[in-house]
C-alpha cells in the first residue's frame, strides 16, 4: 500500500489536479482536513471508502490511521488543502511514516498564493519591477519563526511578500513592513480564494488593516504586499521580444 499526500487545491473542487482526482478515486481510505478541504471532493472517493476527518485528530492519531490501512493493505489518500509543499505539516507525517516503514508519495496541488494571484488577475513577477516572491508567515505562540526569518528582516529585501495565516495579526504586519515598503505600497488580501464566498480587499499599507478588520477576516486568507501589485508601466519581458534570437530546429 501507499499513502498519497494529495494537494486538494485552494478551495474550488475542480482545482484539484487530474492526478490527484484519479488517485483519490482509487483509494479505499481517505484522510481529509474537514475544516479546509471542500466536501465536494469526497464525492470522488469510492462509494465504500472509509472517510476520516482529521480536523480533530492529533499527529499520533493520524499516523495510527495510516498504520491501520498499511496493515490492511489499503492505499490512503491524505488530502491537504493547497499544495503539500508549504505550510501543510506533511513533513512531520512523512517522518513518522519513514520510521514505520510505510511508503508514501506526494501529489502536488494548486497553492493558495497562486489562486490569490489568479483572483487578483496579477502576475507576481513583473520585469524590472519585481522578480522575487517570498512565501512566509509571522511568529505566533505555537510556532516561532527561525532566526533571520522575522517579517522585519524579510521586508528589507523589498520583494513581494505573500503572508499566510496572518490576517489576525494585520496590525503587526503593517507596523513591521511600513519602514521598508512605505505607506503607499500596494496590498491585497484574498480570503477563500476560488470559493463561492471569495473576498478580495485592495489597498495600501496605510489602509489595509482597517479594511481587514471591517471585513472581519481572521483566517483562510493570504496577504500580498509589494510593488508588482500596482505595476502598470514596465518593460516587456525578453521571452517574447522580437529582438530575441530564435532558432528553428
Automatic annotation (TrEMBL):
Its EC number is 2.1.1.133. SUPFAM superfamilies: Tetrapyrrole methylase. Residues 2-208 form the Tetrapyrrole methylase domain. One of its GO terms (biological process) is methylation. One of its GO terms (molecular function) is precorrin-4 C11-methyltransferase activity. InterPro entries: 4pyrrol_Mease, 4pyrrol_Methylase_sf, 4pyrrole_Mease_sub1, 4pyrrole_Mease_sub2, Cbl_synth_CobM/CibF, Siro_Cobalamin_biosynth, Uropor_MeTrfase_CS. It is an enzyme of class 2 (transferase). Pathway: Cofactor biosynthesis; adenosylcobalamin biosynthesis. It comes from the Bacteria. Keywords: Cobalamin biosynthesis, Methyltransferase, S-adenosyl-L-methionine, Transferase. NCBIfam families: cobM_cbiF. PANTHER family: COBALT-PRECORRIN-4 C(11)-METHYLTRANSFERASE, SIROHEME SYNTHASE-RELATED. Belongs to the precorrin methyltransferase family. This is Precorrin-4 C(11)-methyltransferase. It comes from Streptomyces yangpuensis. The gene is cobM.
Amino acid at each position: 500500500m501507499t499513502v498519497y499526500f494529495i494537494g486538494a487545491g485552494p478551495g474550488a473542487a475542480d482545482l484539484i489536479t487530474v492526478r490527484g482526482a484519479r488517485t483519490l478515486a482509487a483509494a479505499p481510505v481517505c484522510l481529509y482536513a474537514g475544516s479546509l478541504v471542500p466536501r465536494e471532493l469526497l464525492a470522488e472517493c469510492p462509494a465504500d471508502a472509509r472517510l476520516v476527518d482529521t480536523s480533530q485528530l492529533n499527529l499520533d492519531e493520524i499516523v495510527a490511521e495510516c498504520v491501520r490501512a498499511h496493515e490492511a493493505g489499503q492505499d490512503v489518500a491524505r488530502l491537504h488543502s493547497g499544495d503539500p509543499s508549504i505550510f501543510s505539516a506533511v513533513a512531520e507525517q512523512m517522518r513518522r511514516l519513514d520510521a514505520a516503514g510505510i511508503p508514501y508519495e506526494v501529489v502536488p496541488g494548486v497553492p493558495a498564493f497562486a489562486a490569490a494571484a489568479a483572483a487578483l488577475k496579477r502576475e507576481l513577477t513583473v520585469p524590472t519591477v519585481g522578480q522575487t516572491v517570498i512565501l512566509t508567515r509571522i511568529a505566533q505562540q505555537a510556532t516561532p519563526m527561525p532566526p533571520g526569518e522575522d517579517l522585519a528582516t524579510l521586508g528589507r529585501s523589498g520583494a513581494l511578500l505573500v503572508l499566510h495565516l496572518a490576517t489576525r495579526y494585520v496590525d503587526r504586519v503593517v507596523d513591521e513592513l511600513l519602514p521598508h515598503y512605505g505607506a503607499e505600497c500596494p496590498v491585497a488580501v484574498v480570503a477563500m480564494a476560488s470559493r463561492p464566498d471569495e473576498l478580495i480587499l485592495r489597498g495600501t499599507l496605510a489602509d489595509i488593516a482597517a479594511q481587514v478588520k471591517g471585513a472581519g477576516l481572521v483566517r483562510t486568507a493570504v496577504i500580498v504586499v509589494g510593488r508588482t501589485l500596482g505595476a502598470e508601466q514596465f518593460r516587456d519581458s525578453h521571452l517574447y521580444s522580437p529582438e530575441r534570437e530564435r532558432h528553428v530546429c
